[in-house]
Design a protein that fits this description.
- This protein has two domains: about 325 residues, 3-Layer(aba) Sandwich (Aspartate Aminotransferase, domain 2), CATH 3.40.640.10; about 150 residues, Alpha-Beta Complex (Aspartate Aminotransferase, domain 1).
- It is built from 22 helices and 13 strands.
- The strands form two sheets. The protein has a seven-stranded mixed sheet with strand order 2-8-7-6-5-3-4, sandwiched between helices. A six-stranded mixed sheet has the order 1-12-13-11-10-9.
Length: about 625
């Protein structure tokens, strides 16, 4: 029974407590590989002989390898970020899963290239199975998914799909005008995605001609597609994607966020109304589940509802959910059969599967409804190397309709055979070329141990969320610190939607926003790689900046809570925050929390003392 999964057995441990188990399996995987080589063609004689190994040159070469490895190890130990420790509460990273690390190592020895089946038969199949898992996780039964290098590349693919698909009706008008006879260009640019895919399927005999008359080949078609709407909390990859894919950064329309740093739905509606009134189509809308700076979860359900309302007016747009960070958290809402758990049954399910050790007031109705609505999106970005606890690089994307992949496909003669079924053609349906099969293997092994539902990943995700709420509660109760006679106040940004806790320090009585920003920036510098020697840091964190140009007036609430007047905000137009992503699964036990939060408080007090003395 997966209920018997113990989070502490899933990781190597902060002090390598599970070293023996890890080492035993690591050696076994290597021995398996070595025996595979030895037994594959037993009739072949050894090409590396005892005489070769005894030669001075051979031994000198081996010593050179050993020396280089020792140097590498020394460098890694000297300045690597200690992701594995609860002392690290910073960027979206943490200790990676033992099954994923061992799976990656074991498959790496075979050096599979998942660009084509002939160079990666086992790992290509694993990637297909992982894609199916991700579809189940997102509630997309007719979907298709794959692993990408990262979330940025998955976002590129999301816009790539939207661009190509939304331009197809214009291409059909040019190639098969009878299929769309009587429809205006406005109607063609506002077709629902399923309708476009049905028409595309009907014209498969001329698929290459159609694609060559779409946005893929004709720049003029791209200019007709309209606005790509994103929240102000968007990931920077969307700007890059608009640039690279020819949509153009001028056609990215940013929507302000509310005081919880979610896309403001009222302002989204105003923007769409204005766009339609100007007879400009809406290419698509992006909502974010787990923003990179705040961990906020946009109102996916309300955006889905908005899309349905506009559909009644004959306006249809593509919907992409950027859940690179928060996507795996959907597993906590899925039962053993991957059915979304009704809200009134959620608490009992959490108790049944021992998701939380204490009474955690999560999720809010907003968060629950947002995660539930993800299944209505056209595509979703999800990163195994974030909340999947997989080693880099492992991003991912899921599309709701597997037919969509034909709108972006290419074929290369030296790695593909046209007409052969996936996974032989995996490289034809993705933006990348060569890609490590070891990545797919790492994710696949992790999913065998931890299915992406409440019985598996839900347990790890639950520990992360509980740890974040414990940190949030600690900061709320802390309120202030006495730093050598100087009172320093601290405030959290807001109650977390997920597992990210942002907070800000300010000296009691200080009304200068620039000085407050300087205080937090210098604290971060002392609690990061920039301190000069990472091993000297007793607590390691991250930071972020909220610029007024990106966030509008949303940061005003925390600025005022820290005693800085409204007038400072337009003058400085920036807020510096400490950002702590709580991915560690260890901050659920009260005694462990007391130890690490006290360690954090003492480290921050020391840093604040140094900074205040410097600022004086």
């Amino acid at each position: 029974m997966t209920n018997h999964i113990n989070n502490k057995a899933l990781f190597l441990g902060i002090n390598a407590e599970n070293r023996d188990f890890f080492q035993e399996n690591l050696v076994q995987l290597f021995n398996d590989h070595a025996n595979w080589r030895k037994n594959l063609y037993p009739e072949d004689k050894d090409l590396v002989t005892a005489q070769d190994r005894a030669s001075e040159c051979f031994q000198a070469t081996e010593k050179s390898i050993s020396d280089a490895l020792k140097e590498m190890s020394t460098r890694l130990q000297g300045s690597s970020t200690p992701w594995q420790s609860p002392r690290y509460l910073g960027h979206m990273n943490a200790e990676t899963l033992t099954p994923a690390l061992l799976g990656y190592f074991g498959a790496m020895l075979y050096n599979a290239n998942n660009v084509a089946y002939e160079s990666s038969a086992p790992t290509s199949l694993m990637e297909v199975e992982v894609g199916q898992d991700l579809c189940k996780l997102m509630g997309m039964d007719k979907g298709w998914g794959h692993i990408s290098a990262d979330g940025s590349l998955a976002n590129f693919e999301g816009l790539w799909y939207a661009r190509n698909i939304k331009s197809l009706p214009l291409a059909i008008k040019d190639v098969e005008p009878n299929v769309v006879a009587g429809k205006s260009d406005w109607e063609l640019l506002n077709m629902p995605i399923p309708t476009i895919m049905d028409l595309f399927e009907q014209t498969q005999s001329r698929i290459d001609v159609l694609k060559n008359n779409s946005a893929r080949a004709l720049a003029k078609e791209i200019t007709h597609l309209g606005k790509w709407i994103v929240p102000e909390t968007k990931h920077y990859s969307w700007v890059k994607a608009a640039d690279v894919l020819g949509v153009g950064t001028n056609d990215i329309l940013e929507i302000p966020v509310d005081d919880h740093f979610r896309m403001d739905i009222a302002k989204l509606k105003v923007a769409i109304d204005q766009t339609i009134a100007a007879k400009i189509p809406v290419l698509g809308v992006v909502c974010v589940v787990g923003t990179t700076e705040e961990g906020a979860v946009d109102h996916v359900d309300q955006i889905v509802q908005l899309r349905e309302e506009y559909a009644k007016q004959g306006v249809h747009f593509y919907l992409h959910v950027d859940a690179a960070y928060g996507g795996y958290a959907r597993s906590i809402f899925l039962d053993e059969n991957y059915q979304f758990i009704p809200k009134d049954e959620l608490k009992s399910k959490f108790a049944e599967h021992k998701i939380f050790k204490s009474d955690v007031n999560w999720p809010s109705d907003d968060v629950y409804n947002a995660f539930k609505a993800i299944s209505y999106a056209d595509s979703v970005t999800i990163d195994p190397h974030k909340m999947g606890y997989i080693p880099y690089s492992a991003g991912g994307i899921v599309i709701a309709d597997s037919r969509m992949k034909d709108t972006i496909s290419y074929f290369a003669a030296y790695v593909f055979e046209k007409g052969v079924k996936v996974p032989a053609l995996l490289g034809s349906f993705i933006m990348e070329g060569s890609k490590a099969g070891a990545t797919a293997a790492g994710v696949w092994v992790a999913h065998q141990v931890l299915p992406p539902n409440i019985t598996g990943y839900g347990k790890v995700i639950g520990a992360s969320i509980e740890g974040a709420y414990n940190l949030y509660d600690h900061i709320v109760k802390l309120k202030s610190m006495d730093i050598n006679g100087t009172k320093v106040n601290v405030q959290p940004l807001c109650q977390p939607d997920f597992n990210m806790v942002d907070f800000v320090f300010n000296i009691e009585g200080n009304t200068d926003l620039a000085l407050m920003n300087k205080l937090n920036e210098e604290v971060y510098n002392l609690c990061s790689i920039f301190s000069g020697h990472i091993l000297q840091c007793k607590f390691v964190t991250s930071h972020t900046d909220f610029a007024r140009s990106d966030y509008g007036e949303a940061p005003l609430d925390i600025v005022k809570r820290l005693g800085v007047p409204d007038s400072e905000w337009p003058k400085v137009a920036n807020l510096t925050l400490i950002r702590s992503c709580v991915l560690t699964p260890y901050l659920t036990d009260p005694a462990v929390c007391d130890y690490y939060f006290n360690t954090m408080d003492n480290a921050l007090a020391d840093c604040l003392g140094q900074v205040i003395a410097k600022l004086k």
